[in-house]
């Protein structure tokens, strides 16, 4: 297990699924905060303590994920935080690629490798 100190914000619109889906990230050594739609994390908190990246799961309520990304990138300070969309139906992913051209896209199975590459972790 690597000793990764950055915090990843994992966004998924179901609390128990979010905990389960983010468990491999914790096992890999990432600090993980979860937003599951109950307002646990506000934009002002993100401004004060920005995560290294925001991972938005598109498995459940992808429109909510888009709104979250829109709110984050709507703030000038939020544009410097990498957003990684995970999974999703191809039609919705294509729309998100147009709306968020600087965002990254991957599958859940490739997420850890994607994060390790993004942050130059072996």
From TrEMBL:
<protein>
    <submittedName>
        <fullName>Uncharacterized protein</fullName>
    </submittedName>
</protein>
<dbReference type="InterPro" id="IPR011006">
    <property type="entry name" value="CheY-like_superfamily"/>
</dbReference>
């Amino acid at each position: 297990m690597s000793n990764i100190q950055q915090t990843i914000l994992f966004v998924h619109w179901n609390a128990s699924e979010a905990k389960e889906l983010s468990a491999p990230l914790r096992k890999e050594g990432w600090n993980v905060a979860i937003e599951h739609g109950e307002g646990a994390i506000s934009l002002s908190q993100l401004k004060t303590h920005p995560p290294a990246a925001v991972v938005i799961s598109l498995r459940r309520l992808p429109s909510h994920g888009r709104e979250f990304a829109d709110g984050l990138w709507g703030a000038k300070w939020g544009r410097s935080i990498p957003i990684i969309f995970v999974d999703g139906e191809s039609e919705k992913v294509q729309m998100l690629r147009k709306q968020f051209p600087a965002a990254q896209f991957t599958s859940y199975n490739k997420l850890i490798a994607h994060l390790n590459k993004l942050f130059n972790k072996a």
